[in-house]
Please model this.
Amino acid sequence: MKRPGFHASSPMRQQSGRLPRRRRPRDAALALAFAAVVGLNACSKKEAAAPEPRPVVAVAVHADGNTAPVTSLPGEVQARYSTPLSFRVGGKIIERRVRLGDVVKNGQIVARLDPADAQKNAASAQAQLAAAEHSYRYAKQQLDRDQAQAKENLIAPAQLEQTTNAFASAAAQRDQAAQQAALAKDQLQYTSLVADHAGVITAEQADTGQNVSAGQAVYNLAWSGEVDVVCDVPESALAGLAPGQTAKVTLGALPGRTFTARVRELSPAADPQSRTYRAKLTLDNPGPDVRLGMTADIALSAPPASTASGAEGQHGFFVLPATALFHDGPQPAVWVVRAADSALELRRVTVARYNERTIVVSQGLKDGEHVVLQGVHTVSAGEKVRAVAPLHPEDFAS
Model:
């Protein structure tokens, strides 16, 4: 007897046979859904791996054409040549004929010493010269007589030799006395101090009644003619200065007027105290209004950048804030944002001048390139960035 529950045609057996066929589509759907979720998670992870470009403070730089950077330095108007006036002999000053600021001519007597001693020396030398000339004439006459008698064999040859020797000695003594007389005469003239060039008295260093030694300065004479402007150049501005370079000079005492000057001399060594280099510039056509000692303001223009290295030097100079400066080893450099891919590039540059808050770049940049102004020590080469303008552009103005 067959049990109903296990009959081949029973409904439970039929249902048990269809259940596996109903689960297969459901499992496939679950597998597809799981694969879709895994794919979405993988895509989201890939998108998270590419971060947004980092914002950096950068601006487009523009050259100032052909205008060179200008350095302004204080200076003073001085004569190109200035020499002390001093007596060539010692003595007591009995007269001064000029004072501070007086204009003198070439050959003018400016002071005199007491000539009493010099006059006595000159008179003594003249007397010695007269005696020497008398001895010379006597020796000459004696020589003429002995020579005539020697021809007639009236004297011995030894006597003629003695007369000839006496004549030579008298001639030498006469020449010596003549030189001593000339020296005494010159020393008498040296008691008068004469200006050897036209100019102006800029200093008085001795007074009437004072005893001075030979060579001691009595006056200081500034020669007439070319006028210089003298200034002290710091190390930061020395690279842009060379002899022959032109500059613009303004004088505080002559407002509204500008003079042209040319660098004539640049000291090869720095002053040990101030660590500056003395520069002398010659004024072109200064005119009578320009007086010695006037204060001047000198605007030095650096020489134009060389164009031999390419297009960078053809646009002029770029003024950047000092915060933009970086270094590639020992060389100065800046960070440039490449326009093609917005990646950072470390670019070596040539710095023409360092200012207090800015630098002047002569080579290495092109007009319109974006340069990073802040945070140069926190970025790296090849990093993708997004240039943003500074919040306060006036802080980066030159």
